[in-house]
């Protein structure tokens, strides 16, 4: 049994704002075996000095798109899988180098991609995948051209990116199919979005019965539903009908935030994607209508985060970036710092996101028994959040499953 000892490290455990100074951590079989003040002497163990550094949990991105490898992410009808998956592999490897040891894929990834990262064929984060997001005809994610007749999505390379379903029975069948293929959770589109053309942001998608069907099937699988949603009234409906995580949520009011907190629902803001599209979208082909939709949602983003904080909502951390814009993944830390403290941000990206994944105690914490998904940071990120920005230049080590993945 190979063992690693991290010595003389200061620890941010992902839960408490207090740093545990000058500790020693023993790692074996991919998990944290011991955390102690006493010096550890284990013959044959690999010792890594953490003097002057902070040990913290690996980061978790709870709204990630490994397979939207083009900035115009839903316009991929001619992209062959033989090109798609190497491009997705590159995005995942870069995210791992930034310190993201787990991601919740919000649409497109499948069993094969998750298994490739699990077995080490791809040097990337753990993937908790949603399979194909569910949308209605003309809803967010619809990419069929505006013509009288169009073949179904099964005739395109994009059949794996979205499932267009209408009616309670069709929703049930689609949810069952995604779970059959190994999905960890289900994603459903409840409002329109920025990146596709057929769906205004104000469009409220799916009937109550359709939404209930998705939630019921997910609960049968001891899982949950995550919802792409913007409008406050649709957020409230989603919470009422049992949806667990609200993605984006840019028009969340304080009253609905309090209701979310009461019901135990989570918010996963994705503020960096709007900034990235605003700065670079034109160069990647975003059109005037998409920019009008972007303006409508992005200006409200920070206010929704402020409302969520005031309403005591459990807030996760996500990015929702597309293609080359993944380079801005860590900029979400900077944007949130206008509203949240470094501790609040880092807790979102570690232990709160682990709770979203239903992996409390396994991921997102530095604790005995947890997986050894760890970062060794040059300095204290609770004092300087910029230590987690960029491409991992301030990370002395990235460890996943007890294996050193970089540095």
What does this protein structure show overall?
This is Peptidase M38. InterPro entries: Amidohydro-rel, Metal-dep_hydrolase_composite, Metal_Hydrolase, Metallo-dep_Hydrolase, OTAase-like. One of its GO terms (molecular function) is hydrolase activity, acting on carbon-nitrogen (but not peptide) bonds. Helices cover 30% and strands 21% of the residues. With 407 residues, it is of the alpha/beta class. It has two domains: 96 residues, Urease, subunit C, domain 1; 271 residues, Alpha-Beta Barrel (TIM Barrel). Strand 17 and strand 18 form a beta hairpin. 53% of the residues are buried. The model has no long low-confidence stretch (mean pLDDT 91).
What percent strand? 15-25%
Judging by the overall fold, what is the CATH architecture of the largest domain?
Answer: Alpha-Beta Barrel
Taking Cα atoms only, what radius of gyration do you get, to the nearest Å?
21 Å
What is the domain tally?
A: 2
Number of helices: 11
- Straight-line distance between termini: 23 Å
Low-confidence stretches: none
Output the CATH class name of the largest domain: Alpha Beta
Q: What is the CATH superfamily classification of the largest domain?
A: Metal-dependent hydrolases
InterPro entries: Amidohydro-rel, Metal-dep_hydrolase_composite, Metal_Hydrolase, Metallo-dep_Hydrolase, OTAase-like
GO molecular function, one term: hydrolase activity, acting on carbon-nitrogen (but not peptide) bonds
Domain Amidohydrolase-related: 54-404
Protein name: Peptidase M38
């Amino acid at each position: 049994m190979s063992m690693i000892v991290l010595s003389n490290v200061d620890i941010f455990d992902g839960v408490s704002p207090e740093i545990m100074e000058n500790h020693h951590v023993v790692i074996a079989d991919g998990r944290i075996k011991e955390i102690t003040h006493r010096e550890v002497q284990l013959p044959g163990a690999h010792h890594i000095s953490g003097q002057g550094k902070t040990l913290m949990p690996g980061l978790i991105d709870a709204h990630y798109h490994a397979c939207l490898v083009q900035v115009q992410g839903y316009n991929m009808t001619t992209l062959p899988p033989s090109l798609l998956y190497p491009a997705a592999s590159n995005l995942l490897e870069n995210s791992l180098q930034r310190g993201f040891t787990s991601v919740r894929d919000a649409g497109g990834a499948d069993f094969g991609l998750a298994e490739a990262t699990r077995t080490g064929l791809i040097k990337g984060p753990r993937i908790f995948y949603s399979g194909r997001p569910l949308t209605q005809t003309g809803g967010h994610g619809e990419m069929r051209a505006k013509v009288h007749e169009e073949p179904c999505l099964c005739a395109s390379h994009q059949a794996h990116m979205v499932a267009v379903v209408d009616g309670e029975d069709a929703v049930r069948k689609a949810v069952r199919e995604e779970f059959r293929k190994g999905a960890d959770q289900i994603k459903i589109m409840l409002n329109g979005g920025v990146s596709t053309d057929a769906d205004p942001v104000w469009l409220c998608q799916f009937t109550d019965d359709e939404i209930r069907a998705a939630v019921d099937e997910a609960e049968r699988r001891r899982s949950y539903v995550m919802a792409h949603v913007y409008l406050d009234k649709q957020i409230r409906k989603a919470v009422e009908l049992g949806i667990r995580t609200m993605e984006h949520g840019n028009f969340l009011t304080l009253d609905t935030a309090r209701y979310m907190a009461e019901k135990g629902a989570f918010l996963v803001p994705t503020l960096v994607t709007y900034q990235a599209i605003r700065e670079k979208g034109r160069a990647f082909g975003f059109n005037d209508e998409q920019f009008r939709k972007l303006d409508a949602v992005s200006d409200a983003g920070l206010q929704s985060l402020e409302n969520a904080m005031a309403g005591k909502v459990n807030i996760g951390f996500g990015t929702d970036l597309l293609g080359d814009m993944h380079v801005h993944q860590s900029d979400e830390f900077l944007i949130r710092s206008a509203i949240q403290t470094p501790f609040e941000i880092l807790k979102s990206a570690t232990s709160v996101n682990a709770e979203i994944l239903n992996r409390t105690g396994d991921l997102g914490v530095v604790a005995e028994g947890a997986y050894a998904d760890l970062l060794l940071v040059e300095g204290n990120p609770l004092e300087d959040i910029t230590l987690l920005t960029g491409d991992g230049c301030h990370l002395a080590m990235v460890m996943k499953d007890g294996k050193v993945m970089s540095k």
